Amino acid sequence: MRKRSNVKYPLNRSIICASALFILLLGIVISAATVLVFRTSIYARYEKQMESILNYVEAHIDHDDMAECANTFVKSEKYEEFQAFLDTFIDTYADNAFINDPESDLKYKDVHYIYIMKVADVGDPYEIYEVCTANTTYEKENFPEYVLTLGDHSDDLDGWYGEDTRKQFRAILQGSEDVFLTNASEWGVDYTLARPVVNSRGEHYGVLCVDVSKDQLIETVFKTVIINIALVVGLGILFIALLLVWMRLNVTKPLHDLENSVVSFAETTAGKHDPDELVFTPPVIRSHNEVASLANAVTKLSADMRDYIKYMVAAEDEARGLQEHVNEMNDIAYKDALTQVKNKAAYDEKAESLAWDIMNSTAKFGIVMVDLNYLKVINDKYGHDKGNEYIIGSCKLICETFVHSPVYRIGGDEFVAVLEGQDYNNREKLLKQLKEAFASALNESGMPPWNRCSAAVGMAVFQAGDNVEAVLKRADQAMYEAKARMKAGQG
Question: Are 380 and 324 in contact (CB under 8 A)?
Fold first, then answer.
């Protein structure tokens, strides 16, 4: 008969209770930390991809034409083309196209809505009007009554959005920054990226939005947190199980040998960085009891630890590679696909840099605005392929003139060059050279029309009291004056 222990607090029971408390506290701490870290990380990934979607969509908008449609509620040919683009985008790419990271599990199918809406002043009967929304073929064929189009609005003021949401959209419209917000509407609760859109005159005419289902975000965060907590708790339970096995052993010679082996392993591997050097040599135990089992467990644990460290090293290398890939994708995101010069997003970033220079009183730059002539004629008469050649040829003339300055394509037929340093010092000479280059190309009667490039050019220089937008507007005004003179000369 087994003798009853007289120990008031058995060590085994104490270890079990302490281990259970440890796992509980560990689970709570890890849960809180994981929720914070992964929620921030996943939201950041969604936000980055939502920005990519808006950049891609906005690149296809003719803002002047869209502003006119929003003001008159009359569809234009360009409006119909953009509507078809949005619908094709949703139908074709939403289920199988990745954004930025091909290893990511976030795809376009997470997108709930993409749309432009007009936000009217307070006192308007409806305040919110539809301008353009991406509609899937399935929606158009099966639920045509729910398909929104230009000028649509709710039947009552609070039908689509509540007062607080309408105030948010109105504030966004008056600003100039992208805003992330939780958007509660009759279609559900979405996480929204809203961007004010303006025409070439700087007039705000609407808000461009992309929505992601809030439930989708919460589900993604929840799954990630549960998986990581399960891994942590699983490793904790494994560790405690091994510890309990060790506590069941007798303090005997085999245990002493095992202790010596563990101490020797710790001493010989201290400061080692090569996982292959983390090799545990178990003691020779012939008793075939719990001590032998513990020795085997420690041996396996050391091997698992070595494999885990190798895995972490490999994971770190992979993460570094992914970061490099993200950097490459960022480079692509700031480059115009047709001309290979920088795009509107890159110009916006440059404008922020120039704003800092202005703030620090170190700004010294000029802006050249170039607007291509006859592009629509080339597109309509010879096709968009020739129109692309016309754009590329014109861009080449600009780049060959401003060799030391960044050139940006900010619209379908609009380019901007920011002159600094050597090009800024020679700006008048270079401006004249560019105008002569376009005039020479236009007069090449032996060349096909798509190689006879023509453009109106305007330049403005930063002056004390200016901001970047003011310099750009003056360059734009100078360009329009040049265009008017060119038209008058043709007449």
Answer: no
Residue 357, class by beta-carbon neighbours within 10 Å (0-12 exposed, 13-18 middle, 19+ buried)? middle
Predicted pLDDT at 410? 94
Q: How far apart are CA 348 and CA 339, in angstroms?
A: 18
Distance CA 149, CA 93 (A): 21
Q: Which of 46-60, 277-291, 333-347 has the lowest mean pLDDT?
A: 277-291
At which of 205, 220, 235 does a domain end?
220
- 3-state helix, strand, coil split of the chain in percent (to 5) is 60, 15, 25
Residue 198: in which H helix or E strand, if any? strand 188-198
CATH code at position 94: 3.30.450.20
Q: Which helix (H) or strand (E) holds 472?
A: helix 468-490
Q: CA-to-CA distance for 371 and 345, rounded, in angstroms?
A: 18
Q: N- to C-terminal Cα distance for the chain?
A: 119
Residue with tokens 């545990």: 280
Averaged pLDDT score across all residues of the chain: 82
pLDDT confidence bin for 297, thresholds 50/70/90? confident
Which residues, other chains included, contact 121 with Cβ-Cβ below 8 Å and sequence gap of 6+?
127
Domain residues for the domain of 308 are 251-333
pLDDT at 365: 96
Residues paired with residue 47 on neighbouring β-strands, in sequence order: none
- The per-residue pLDDT for 237 is 75
Give the three-state DSSP class for 418: strand
Is residue 111's pLDDT more than 50?
yes
**Residues with Cβ < 8 Å from 391, sequence gap 6 or more?**
338, 339, 372, 375, 412, 413
pLDDT at 269 over 60: yes
Rounded to an integer, the average pLDDT of 317-344 is 79
279: nearest Cα among 290, 292, 266, 291: 266
Structure tokens at 261: 């082996």
Q: Give, in degrees to the nearest 5, the angle at Cα 100 between 96 and 102.
A: 55
Is residue 377's pLDDT more than 70?
yes
Residue 461: both structure tokens together: 């220089």
204 in helix, strand or coil? strand
Residues 375 and 313 grouped into a single domain: no
Measured CA angle at 272 (ends 268, 278), to 5 deg: 65
393 domain residue, yes or no: yes
